[in-house]
Design goal:
Layout: E1 3-4, E2 10-13, E3 32-39, E4 42-47, E5 50-58, E6 62-65, E7 67-70, E8 77-80, H1 84-105, H2 109-131, H3 136-156, E9 164-165, E10 168-169, H4 177-192, E11 199-210, E12 217-226, E13 231-232, E14 237-241, E15 257-264, E16 272-282, E17 297-307, E18 318-323, E19 325-326, H5 336-341, E20 349-350, E21 356-365, H6 368-374, H7 376-381, E22 384-386, E23 402-412, E24 424-431, E25 453-455, E26 466-473, E27 484-492, E28 500-509, E29 521-526, E30 528-529, H8 539-543, H9 557-561, E31 565-574, H10 581-587, H11 596-602, H12 608-613, H13 615-628, H14 630-647, H15 657-667, H16 673-686, H17 695-702, H18 704-722, H19 727-745, H20 754-765, H21 770-773, H22 779-791, H23 802-816, H24 818-821, H25 823-842, H26 847-859, H27 866-869, H28 871-897, H29 904-927, H30 930-938, H31 943-961, H32 971-995, H33 1003-1018, H34 1029-1039, H35 1042-1057, H36 1069-1076, H37 1081-1087, H38 1089-1102, H39 1106-1121, H40 1127-1140, H41 1147-1171, H42 1178-1195, H43 1198-1214, H44 1218-1229, E32 1238-1239, E33 1248-1249, H45 1250-1267, H46 1271-1287, H47 1291-1310, ...
Parallel strand pairs: 15-22, 36-37
Antiparallel strand pairs: 1-3, 2-3, 2-6, 3-4, 4-5, 7-8, 9-10, 11-15, 11-21, 12-13, 12-14, 12-16, 16-17, 18-21, 19-20, 23-26, 23-31, 24-25, 24-27, 27-28, 28-30, 29-31, 32-33, 34-35, 34-37, 35-40, 37-38, 38-39, 39-40
Amino acid sequence: MWIPTEHEKYGVVLASFRGTVQHGLPLEIGDTVQLLEKCEGWYRGFVHKNPNAKGIFPCTYIHLKNAHIKNKGQFETVIPTEDSVITEMTTTLRDWGAMWKRLYVKNEGDLFHRLWHVMNEILDLRRQVLVGHLTNDRMKDVKQHITARLDWGNEQLSLDLVPRREFSMVDPDEISVTELFKLMEHRHRKKETPVPASTHHLFVHMKSLMSSNLGEELEVFFHIYDGRENRPLSERFFVRLNKNGVPKSPEKTERQCTLFVDLGSSDLRKDVYIVVHIMRIGRMGAGEKKNVCSIQYRRPFGCAVVSIADLLTADSKDDHLLKVYACTTESEWYQIHENIIRKVNSRYNLSGSNTGLAVSLQLLHGDIEQLRREYMVLFTRGVSITKKLGFSDIIMPGEMRNDLYVTLEKGEFEKGGKSVARNVEITVYVLDIEGQVMKSYVAAGSGEPGGDEYHSFVLYHNNSPRWAEQIKLPIPVDMFRGAHVRFEFRHCSTKDKGEKKLFGYSFVHLMQEDGRTLPDGTHELIIHKCEENANLQDSSRYLKLPFSKANLPGNNQAVKGTKESFWITSFLCSTKLTQNGDMLDLLKWRAHPEKINDSLSKLKEIDGSEIVKFLQDTLDTLFGILDESSQRYGLKVFDCLVHIINLLQDSKFQHFKPVMDTYIESHFAGALSYRDLIKVLKWYVDRIVDAEHQDHIQQVLKATEYIFKYIIQSRRLFALATGGQSEEEFRCCIHELFMSIRFFLSQENKITSPVTQTQAVFLRTFPAVYGELLKIFTVKEVAGFVRETLGSLPATAHAECPLEAVKLHCIAKTVESQLYTNPESRCILLPVVLRLLQAHMQEQRDLVMCARILTSMLSLIRKDDSVTTEPVVSEEVDLIVDSLLVVLMRTILEITNRPQPAGTNMRLQFQDITGEFVACLLALLRQMSDKHYQQLLQTFTSKDDLRDFLLQIFTVFRILIRPEMFPKDWTVMRLVTNNVIITTVLYLSDALRKNFLNEKFDYKVWDSYFYLSVIFINQPCLQLESFSPSKRKRVLEKYGDMRVMMGCEIFSMWQNLGEHKLNFIPAMIGPFLEVTLVPQPDLRNVMIPIFHDMMDWEQRRSGNFKQVEAKLIDKLDSLMSEGKGDETYRELFNSILLKKIERETWRESGISLIATVTRLMERLLDYRDCMKLGEVDGKKIGCTVSLLNFYKTELNKEEMYIRYIHKLYELHLKAQNYTEASYTLLLYDELLEWSDRPLREFLNYPMQSEWQRKEYLHLTIVQNFDRGKCWENGIILCRELADQYESYYDYRNLSKMRMMEASLYDKIMDQQRLEPEFFRVGFYGKKFPFFLRNKEFVCRGHDYERLEAFQQRMLNEFPHAIAMQHVNQPDQTIYQAEAQYLQIYAVSPIPESQDVLQRDGVPDNIKSFYKVNHIWRFRYDRPFHKGTKDKENEFKSLWVERTTLTLVQSLPGISRWFEVEKRELVEVSPLENAIEVIENKNLQLRTLIAQCQSRQMQNINPLTMCLNGVIDAAVNGGLARYQEAFFVKDYIVNHPEDGEKIGRLRELMFEQAHILEYGLAVHEKFVPQDMRPLHKKLVDQFHVMKSSLGIQEFPAYVRASPVHFTNGSPRSSCRNSVPNIISPDGARVVARRSPLTYPAVNRYSSSSLSSQASNEVSNITGQSESSDEVFNMQPSPSTSSLSSNHSASPNVTSSAPSSARGSPQLQDKHKHSRENSCLSSRERPVSAIYPNPLDPAQRATPHQIGDTTLPRSDPNLSAPDKVRTTFSSRSLDSVKEVNNTQFSDTVGKLLCPPVPPRPPYSGSSAKTMRSQSPLPTSRSPQKSSLPPFTPSPTECQSAGLVSNSPVLSGSYSSGISSMSRCSVSEASGTEATTGDHPAHQGPTMPNSVSSGSDELIRRENKTPPPYSVYERSNPRRPVPLPHSLSIPPSVDPPALPPKPHQLRTSSMKLVPTSDPRRADGVPHVPRPRPLPRKVSQL
């Protein structure tokens, strides 16, 4: 049975448990678990990291830990009872662990490794703490290390700052907010701004001297030198080097390393240097031989200098190589370093080019103890300390030092009978009082131990040597008295013996008789003659002699007059000895009582360092004098005491204050002194008002603190000695003293008055007295003193009075004092403090100090049960609220609205006081209970006051919520702030309801309330979803989810509003929407119903909710783009609101609104998800297009539409889709007009006129069209701009624009353009974004992108998608699948611009543009077998399923892909299929032959392969298979309707044979010699093929209609003689075409029809990459009138109803409409998703491709010839009523040259055919009324670039066909008749219209694309619009030309229309009205 656990509540998992048992809970080692129940060795509970999952686990897996329980019961919280540092470590390391792994994933290697080391270090330290064997000090150090590392890691990982007190985390609930703020600020400051160290130290490590000419031992001396004052700052550091230049004792690091200590900040400047002197130990001369002299001397070697400033930039140890200068003139050695510093070093040479001193130098900062901790290795390894000369900037008590520094300056010596000057060496000894040499007390410097003697260096032959050599004598204090220093002078001979001969000595006493030491300074010593060492053995002999010339008596002139002298400089640095006689006189006052007066007077002149040395002795002396002679010396002793007290205020001596405190507590014995001290102090205070000079009195008042300390201690000693006698007298004295003080404080004076300054001095020191008074007086008495004293200050004060600031400072000290912490005294002092504080805060003065005082006051108040148990605290809160709450809020408002000061320090201070005031406000509000709030609200007498208060507090709260209020890692502080805010708001919302509803409604207050609530919920620190699980758990346990609490409050308040809700519609829609987007389900459930309420009230008010809808849509975009909202929200929004409106009367419109908003959300979410991806891809662009169109078409939001236009534009630019970028920007351009209206600043556009913006857009678009090689479109815009410039006479810009236009024409002709591939992509499955889901698109591929590459790109964009391996339409299971399926295959474009493509002579560079631009329709063929498949001949059942896709917009456009709007599917029968295959092969042959003839082909191989493929396939049964399939009797009987088609197939087969024959002739002419055998084989096979086809000679109609070769073979005019049909030179063959002719070149495949089915399938169904294969459709004479479709719009190909297409049972007039649309090429395989690998040799270059696709006209024919032959078939009389000019203009601009049709195949003879020629061809080109016309793709046309005139195109085509026939008739020598043939009157326009009515309806209903420049209006001059920039015109397809044998007189009549673009008379359907023109504001 499961029993709830009592004590076993918390444990740690010891081993991982899989949880495989029933209800088992998986556990990982190290998890912490909370135990709920226990049963027979099993626990039930949960893991803390996932408290929702509960389960069972074995007891043995758990290690139990002690814990205490909060909220025992169902919602209990278990907290382990362990050290809080341990707990923090554990939770922090868990959080870090997850983040540490993420660092690895993000490749942040550096932080990853550093964090790993720190985590290991923390684990090690944690282990030490848990073991519990550490001492208290060690434990403290370990915890300090732990917290430092925790803080470092938190900072590096951007985690929260943890408030700590003594290493433990602080619970914010257990301290006041002000204390919390202080802790946070302290830790933040510590982290941000380290305090600059005032003490610095220089670390020096001597490494080596590098020199080539060593060989002697060296001594190196370092010291720090002040170049400004020319004196050393430190003693010397001494290193001995061996003969190799490295230290002699490498194992003793203290001999090589030193620390120059106690450098002040003032010493770190440029003119402070490290000076290095180097001495050599050896012979006198550096070059002397070794055997000359065995004695070694110290001789100068070199000097080096480096500036301290050079080290300031180096953070770590840097190695320096110092230049060493050698001094050639020894007499200047003493100043060599000065000369080097002054750059006078030209006289010194470097010791060698490679000589240098290698040293390591590093500056360290902080006190020496801190360095010992931080650089432990340095000190444990060993380092010598080199001291400063003199004391450091701060003298510490207890510092012991007694060093005498002696510098050997110079000497003056006589020759002594020598011919040359002496080589003088000085030997220094220190002797004690007994004359014995003191051992080890002579030191050359630190680093080496002291010696018994010191030898100076020797200067060669110099009787006036200058050494400047410093030595240190560290003699103990007790040995100073009687000791002296002796200097012995010897001459060092350089002769063989090399002896050192004594010739004199000097000495000096270290202490004088009166106890004073040798004074600092230079001393000239007497040189006493002495030549025997023995004479110096007894020091008593010479000590009686005079030693200094300065001390000689006046009668001793003999000695004074001697020339020989020796100078030294001494400097004593001692904490015990003094050189000051006045100090000694004072200390010995009893011996010389007569000198007391002088000594007291001179005390003020004695140096402070001398006084602090003898501080205790001096104080004893002063109080001794006071006790014995108080009447006589009382005032002077008091003054001396004041001087000493104020001396300790100096920063240099402030550390001696504790020494004085100790003295007062332990050594002071003046029990009677208090009377004299009070008396003198009162005497001074009483004189303040009348005294002229206040300086001395101010000095006295500065010392008040210590004077009171002496008074109180003296009184306590007296009371102790006497048992408390004279208590009343003492109290009386103190009261009188305070009365005097109050009197002088109450004086009102001028601001500059000295008395005012004296008052300020007293107030500064007064708070320090409280603690002393409390030692004798009660708390209330002292509080009374303070209250009365502060209350006596003058009330009226000037703002600029310095006393005001001091008053506040005094109050601050009072509040921080021990006195104020006592509740008894606090209630006495609080009114005074509040009064002064309120006055300052109201006037906004001294706010920093006000904040400090308020912080201290509120830190003393705790929020706990004390409110009920201690009414005192409650009263205090009352008082503070009454006095300061309002003024505190006003202060916060004012300081946050001020501009921040510029300086960094000022700015920091400004932020600090803001934070402090905020903390104070929060602390105060936190202390307030119900009672306080009620009292507060009752204080507002009027409604206006309450209103102002509420507005003020709501505004303040909004400020507190600002992100910049606290540093970003202060989450703890923010949560406390929010907790206080929500508590206060709950209290105040009642007041809002009671006072500001119904007739008292106040919009401003309610608006402020709602606004506050909304930003409260939205603040980042409350978004728990972004927190780690552990942090989220902690927050929820402590505060709950405050967002839900506030949301419920908003809903409650909203429901109370009633009809006043209308005031907040639509204003609050946006804010409330933002709240509902917060991902908190409970909050959403509470807040979303408010929108239903808003819709309801808006419906009541205005009958609709347009405002609600508009506001929702506007805000959704901005909010969702910020990352708010998700799919769950969309579903929730939809379901909640739909449920709410079920019973409403306005349900339908409500559903519509909700659906619109939901659809917008879908698109916005898709857009946001796409934008998160890295690179620009089709998904991003497609999504943006979808959203852009939604804003335009469904929402009509112009501004959002324009914003997304520019977002799309940026995406295209980033992806280098320059053409698409241009089309996109054109959308915005078309919303603007050429007007001068001013436009506001918008996006990146400045404020400018509409004309200027449109100009800028035009130029940008042209530039992008240029970059995208879409030059034709750019030309149109150039023209439009040029037109504008011309109308403004801006010829400069007009010239530039014309030049730009010309450059675009040049680029069209000169630069190569690639034709892109097009791919159909289907996106199936529910996992695709909304804008793609279950839709199909056609995409324009990138340059060089083939199917495999495109398919791979799409799979990369959708990595989870599955590629479908078939091209069939998917079924519903795929549509509804929870997956992504991609179906991709290539499609062929069906161009719209057939007029350009069919014109003769148009270069391929131009045509290539129209083949792949402005494409609406695409085609795809799929072969299949219908019925039984004949294994012997599969062509019998091989059908083709042809799919035509129509897009919503043409490509290219604003996107690289557009959705498919309509699918059309037709089936092509096997016979039609065969016809197409042979037609395609014939066209390919023609093209190759033409290219070969015109020598465009560089080699003949393609023609050879093509001929071989066709002939060989035919021989092997290719054509024979068709004969077997379709020419057999069974087929003809079973398919009587295919008779014509069978005839057509036979005709094509004969034609192929004819072309092959001609091709072989051409091949023979050009074939190389080595390929002749192959040619012969081909000719032989061709004859076999002819015989297999049964062809003996070609039928007459074939001979009469010679083959026409595209662009290649010249064509004879009507006047030429009959050409030789077979001859390759003379052939002039006209192409014969039918509606099924598909004249596209197969650019890749050279194979022809073969017997294998697979080859045929690929030939039949392969999709051509040649784009003109779609539009070179030629009519067949054997078809109905629909066949004359030469130059008509391609719309005609789908003019028949879709149901009728491809059906064999249709009427004749529709029979071939399907055939017209069944255009197949042979390039792609059966399934286009398996791309066809193409042989590179078979790929034609773009130029070759272009040449093969030119319209069939003779390029060698001149334009007039072409025009003449075009109209030779008819008389112009039939169009007399048409204006000649109009006609010529129309023809010249609108007509497209057609392709000649074939004569009808009826089996008749050629003669019959010739008789049908309607006109003779006798008209000359000179008689033509038409001008020569050169078609241009951008010709100025009022109706665009595409001609849609059916009448003209029909007549034009008939002219061509008659020309073709004319040439035949001349060839046969027969005259043609000249009359019109009656049968020529074919079907008229209406027939054509009706036959294409379904296409017309489709086109007219199509929404024009927004990027169209079609129908551009220009007020000044009509600007031609390109077809390239417009949608296909919404007009009927043009009429199909009649059959060639019919007369067409009637069809020549032009139909008058109102619209020049519409020649068919059908009313023009207008474009949909554009967006409302609000664009003028944009």
